[in-house]
Design brief:
Mean pLDDT: 93
Helix content: 40-55%
CATH topology: Rossmann fold
Shape: globular
Order of helices and strands: EHEHHEEEHHHEHEHHEH
Low-confidence stretches: none
Structural class: alpha/beta
CATH architecture: 3-Layer(aba) Sandwich
Bound molecules: 2'-deoxycytidine-5'-monophosphate
Largest sheet: 5 strands, parallel
CATH superfamily: P-loop containing nucleotide triphosphate hydrolases
Radius of gyration: 17 Å
CATH class: Alpha Beta
Number of strands: 8
Number of domains: 1
Number of helices: 10
Length: about 220
Amino acid sequence: MPTVPVLTIDGPSGVGKGSVARIVAGKMGWHLLDSGAIYRGFALAAQSRNISFNDEPGLAKLAEKLDLRFESVEGQELLNVYLDGEEVSKELRTEQTAELASQLAVIAPLRAALLKKQQQFEQTPGLVADGRDMGTVVFPDAPYKIYLTASAEERAQRRLKQLQNSTNAGNISQILAEVKKRDERDANRKHSPLTPARDALIIDTTCLTIDEVIARVMALVEV
Ligand code: DC
C-alpha cells in the first residue's frame, strides 16, 4: 500500500494553524483534518446530552458513535459542520465551545476513542492535519511536521479578529486570559500534551504575515 504524505501542523490556540492548514491543503490538493473541530464537536455533543465530564466511560462511548460531518461550501472559507445531521458551525467556533473542548481533551479514554476517527483522514493524495498532538501522537510517522508559535498577546489579537469576522466578538483582555488558560491546560495535561514533535520545524509567527508562514510551510512540502 503506498504511504500517504501527511503534513502535521501543531501549536497553541489562535496561532493561525487553521488558516495555514486550509491554504496549504488547497495548494497541494490534499485533504484537511481540523482536529480541534472534532474536539469541539464532541464537546457540543456531550453538553447537549448532559453527560457529566466525570463520566469517562459515558464520554468514551459517545466519542465512538460521534456523528460529525464536515462540508465545504463554494466561496466560503470555513467548513460547515453537522452534528447528528444538524448544522452547528456557529456554536462550534465560539470561545465557550473551545473552553469546553479543552476541558474534555484531558480525558485519556476520550482521546483514545477519537484517535481512529482522526487517523481515518489519512487518504491519498495527502493530508494536512492541524491540532495539538498531530505530530506527536496521531501521525507520529508523518514526513512533514510543523509547530507554529506566537506570543500570547499576538494570538489573542488574531483570535479577536477571527471572532469579529464570524460570530460575537469578545474583548481583548478577556480573550487573552482565556487563550492563556487553555494553553496552560493543553500544555500541562498528562495525555498527549501540546508540545512540538522532536522532528518538527518550529516557526515563530509573531512577526510574520500569513503569506510568509505559508511560504515556509510550502518550502518544506514542495520538494
Ligand atoms: O484547535 P482548537 O482551538 O479548535 O481546539 C480546541 C481545544 O480542543 C483545544 O484547546 C484542546 C483540544 N484539542 C486537543 O486536545 N487536541 C487536538 N489535536 C486538537 C484540539
